[in-house]
């Protein structure tokens, strides 16, 4: 093989490594819209979902209804209920890098510590009082916390662990926008103690400096 062929192959393999990484985030949309469809029939693959033929787009591809309704918080062990409005509910959000949630909190309810691997979140309180916070990454692990009332807005930077807890005497409601069509959620306790199959309790006992029995109890609670 000539030098030219060699460097051409090197560039090709570099591209094949870097290109999928570049496409794996919410990119500039490159077109007005790209309504997600679940099958490739009549579609073109861009990112995340196949696109519907733009000629067939309708207003309903960009529409969702019912976020005015309070959600039930009784059946949740943490006393909250998150209603997601992302690309799975609004296919027209495909490639647009944005989505929404409504969060209902019962009295003493919380949205427990979690992260969104692909999104920054901006939250506005519609009703009630929330104690909220996020923690910066290691080694500082600094807590940024705030008590929010109706009309207050707070930002949770991308990827950082954050929470909201209803500290008022009434149910609370918040809405939040997230900078991804599909932000993803990692609930810390469920992920660590509820994995299937379970992480070896001896590993987590060392991690959390606890007796393995306590870990096994937690794993039972989180259904690992
Ligand atoms: C959230 O609320 C809806 C409607 O009130 C209910 O059907 C659903 O089971 C609730 N989800 C959780 C996790 O409590
Ligand atoms: C309850 C709690 O952790 N409150 C903290 C919120 O953040 C301030 C600093 O901005 C701390 O002084 C509080 O202790």
How would you characterize this protein structure?
It is a single chain. The strands form three sheets. This protein has a five-stranded antiparallel beta sheet, with no helix packed on it. The chain has a five-stranded antiparallel beta sheet with strand order 9-8-11-6-13. It is globular, with a radius of gyration of 22 Å. It is built from four helices and 13 strands. α3 crosses α4. Among the domains are: 121 residues, Sandwich (Jelly Rolls), CATH 2.60.120; 31 residues, no CATH class. It is α+β, with helices and mostly antiparallel strands and 224 residues long. The protein binds 2-acetamido-2-deoxy-beta-D-glucopyranose (2 copies). The site of one 2-acetamido-2-deoxy-beta-D-glucopyranose has 5 residues, from loops.
């Amino acid at each position: 093989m000539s030098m030219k062929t060699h460097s051409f192959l090197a560039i090709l393999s570099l591209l094949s490594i870097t290109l999928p990484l570049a496409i794996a985030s919410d990119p500039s949309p490159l077109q007005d819209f790209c309504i997600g469809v679940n099958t490739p029939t009549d579609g073109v693959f861009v990112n995340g979902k196949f696109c519907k033929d733009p000629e067939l787009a309708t207003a309903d591809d960009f529409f969702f209804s019912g976020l005015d309704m309070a959600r039930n918080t009784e059946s949740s062990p943490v006393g909250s209920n998150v209603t997601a409005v992302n690309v799975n509910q609004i296919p027209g959000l495909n490639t647009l890098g944005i989505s929404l949630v409504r969060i209902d909190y019962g009295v003493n309810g919380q949205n427990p510590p979690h992260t969104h691997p692909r999104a920054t979140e901006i939250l506005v309180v519609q009703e009630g009082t929330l104690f909220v916070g996020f923690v910066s990454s290691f080694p500082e692990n600094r807590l940024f916390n705030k008590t929010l009332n109706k009309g207050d807005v707070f930002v949770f930077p991308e990827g950082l662990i954050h929470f909201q807890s209803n500290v008022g005497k009434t149910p609370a409601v918040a809405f939040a926008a997230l900078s991804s069509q599909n932000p993803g959620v990692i609930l810390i306790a469920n992920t660590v103690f509820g994995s299937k199959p379970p992480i070896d309790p001896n590993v987590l006992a060392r991690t959390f400096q606890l007796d393995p029995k306590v870990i096994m109890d937690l794993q039972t609670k989180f259904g690992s």
